[in-house]
Amino acid sequence: MKRKILFMPFISLIVLLYGCSSSSGSFASDKMIKLKNEVYITSNETVTEDELAEQIGEIEVSSTNERDLNEANTISSNTYKVGTRLFKINNKNIKDMIAVEDSTSQYFIAYNNKYTEK
Predict the structure, then answer these.
(1) What pLDDT, on a 0 to 100 scale, did the predictor assign at position 60?
(2) What is the mean pLDDT of residues 95-100?
């Protein structure tokens, strides 16, 4: 009987840890955008509307499950809603950074994940 009493907290801990695991396909970072097989992470830095070049697309799929965003030709995000507009920034390479229109009509810089610090 004493073994059962000692064994129960151990089993409870295992169940608790399993339930809290993040193996459900969630992202390592929020504010991610996938565009043409490039992954961008939105910063807190903003640009003005005058610094924007042409619109390069808009979010087509929005999901917090990474498995939903694996389609190669789909512009997707784990944060931004469908229809959120993306822009090229004047004199900047799209491979390096893009601008994301926030719901408050601010434009945030999203940096290519390849160039962000790990």
Answers:
(1) 92
(2) 96
Decide if 107 contacts 113 (C-beta within 8 A). Answer: no
Q: DSSP for 66-91? A: GGGG--TT--EESSSPTT-EEEEETT
Q: What is the mean pLDDT of the chain?
A: 79
3-state secondary structure of 16: helix
| 52-83 burial code (b ≥16 CB/10 A, e <16) | beeeeebbeebeeebeebeeeeebbbbbbeee
Q: What is the pLDDT of residue 10?
A: 57
E strand spans, the chain: 32-35, 38-47, 52-58, 61-62, 76-77, 85-89, 97-101, 107-112
How far is residue 43's CA from residue 36's CA, in Å, rounded to a whole number? 19
| pLDDT confidence band for 2 (50 / 70 / 90) | low
